[in-house]
Amino acid sequence: MVQASKWFNFLLFLGIFQLAESAFGTPEHIHLAWTENEHEMMVSWSTFIPVDSFVHYRPILCNDAAENYEYTEVLGNRTMFNEGVLMLRFIFLHNALIKGIRSECFYEYFIQSSIGKSKTYIFNGRTPESDDSFNDTSNPFKMIIIGDLGGGDIGSITAALFQREVKFRDSAGLIHLGDLAYNLDTDNGLTGDNFLNLVQDLAATIPYMVLPGNHENFDNQTHYKMRFKMLKNEYNDGLGQFYSFNLGPAHFTIINTEVHFFENQTISANRTISAKVQRKWLENDLAVANKNRKERPWLFVLAHRPLYCSYDYLANSKERNRTCGPEAKYLREEYEELFNENAVDVFFTAHVHSYERITPIYHNVTVKSQYDDTNTHINPRATVHIVDGIGGNRLRHNAKATHTPQLWSVYRTDDYGYGKLTVYNKTHMLFEQYSSLTWNTIDTVSIIKTRERF
What Enzyme Commission number(s) does the record list for this chain (predicted)? Predict the structure, then answer.
C-alpha cells in the first residue's frame, strides 16, 4: 500500500511537471508588426522554456483560381531575456518574418512549438508601400490610435472594446503612443507579460506598432527594445525608437520625445540616441515626405508627449502644470517650426490621461482654415493637435479634463477609450474617438483639403 502511494505521488508529480512544461512551452504574447520592407510581416511571441517554435501560415481568400493553399513553415529565432528586476526571471523571445505576402490575400497562421500550439489567427496582407491597395477609395484604410494603455480593471475595459474591433471593424493597424502596460518591467516583467496577453487577440490580428513613452525608460528602454521589433532605418540601429512608413496617400512619422527628458538613452552600446541624431533623421524624413506630397499629401507625426494641452489653472497640481506648461513649451521650441515648415497635418500624442482635440494652431494661437466648425476643417493652415492618452491604466486619471481650457481647446473628456483615423483618399480624412465605457463615438473631426499642403 505504501509502495502504491509512492508510485501515485510520483505519477502525480510527473503529470504536474509535464502540464507545467507544456504551458511554459506554449507560444504567447503574440503580436504583429510591419517592417521596413514591403510584402513582409514580423511575428513576435514568447515562451518560458527554450524550445524551438515555428510560424505556420498560408494565404486565404485571395480571389484567384486556387482553392487550397499549403502551410509554409518558418522557424523563429530565439533570444533569452532576463525580464526580472529584483530577481532573475528568464523568458525566451521569438521573432519570425513572413515574406512574400500579397495585399489581395488574407493570411491564416498559428505558432507551434515542440510542446505547445497557439490559437489560429488571420491578418490582412496589405503592407506599407506594397501597392495601391491603400489608395483604393472604395476601401479606405483605418488606423487605431491609442496611448497610455495598461492592464488591470481599467485597461481591460478598453481591451474588451478591442475584441469588438477585431470582429466587426476593418483596421489596417494600431499605433500605441507610448506608456505600454504600466510598466513592461513591473513585477519582474510579469506586468508586461500580462499586458501582451491582454491585447494578444488584437495584436496578433493587425500590426501593433509602438513608440516609447516615459514609462518605457527603465534600464535604458531595454524591455521596449527587446519586446517590440519596429522598422529599421540607418539612424535607429534597428531598435525602433523612431521610424516612418507610407500607407496609400499618407506618410506616418513616429518620434521619441523621451530623448529630451532622459539624458542617457542609447540606440546601442556604441551610439547615444541624442536629440541631435533623431533631429537629423526627422529633418530628412519630413523633407522626403514633402517631395512626395503629390502622391501622399497626408503627413501625420506621432509621439508620446504633447506640444499643446490644457490644464486646470485653478488647480495646484504641479505634475499637470509641468506636462502642459514648461514641458510642452520646451517641445514646441524643439518641433513647432519644423512641423510648420513641413506642413504636418495632424500631430498625435498621449502622456496626459485625458482626451483633447485642439484647433489648427501655431505659436499658441488658433490659425483659421478656409472653413472651420466644431467638427470640420477645410484647408487648414496649421497643424491640428490631438492628445489621446486615455487608454486606461493603473494610474487612472493623472490629469482630468480641465474646467478652465484654453480658447484653442475644442473638445475634452475623461472617458477611457481610443481613436481611429480613417484616410478616405488624398483629400478627405476623419478622426473618431470612442468611449470604452459606452462603446459609442464621442468626438469626430473631418479634415478636407484641396491642396497638397498648407
Answer: 3.1.3.2
Amino acid at 41: M
pLDDT digits (tens, 9 = 90+) for 225-248: 999 999 999 998 888 899 999 999
In total, the chain counts a number of residues equal to 454
**pLDDT, position 69:** 82
Are the C-beta atoms of 376 and 446 separated by less than 8 Å?
Answer: yes
Task: Give buried/exposed letters for 265-286 (b at 16+ CB in 10 A, else e).
Answer: bbbeeeeebebebbeebbeebb
- Cα–Cα dist 397/381, whole Å: 33
Can you tell me the distance from the alpha carbon of 334 to that of 349, in angstroms, rounded to the nearest whole number?
15
How far is residue 448's CA from residue 376's CA, in Å, rounded to a whole number?
A: 8
Determine the Cα–Cα distance for residues 319 and 196; give it in Å rounded to an integer: 29
Confidence of residue 132 (pLDDT cuts 50, 70, 90): low
Closest CA to 247 of 145, 171, 134, 137: 134
The residue ranking higher by pLDDT, 23 or 328, is 328
Q: At what angle do helices 275-291 and 326-341 cross, to 10 degrees?
A: 30
Grid coordinates representing 163 are: 475584441
Going by the DSSP 8-state scheme, the letter that residue 218 receives in this structure is: T
* pLDDT for 315: 64
pLDDT at 268: 47
pLDDT at 2: 47
What whole-number distance in Å separates Cα of residue 347 and Cα of residue 355? 14
The SS3 call for residue 171 is coil
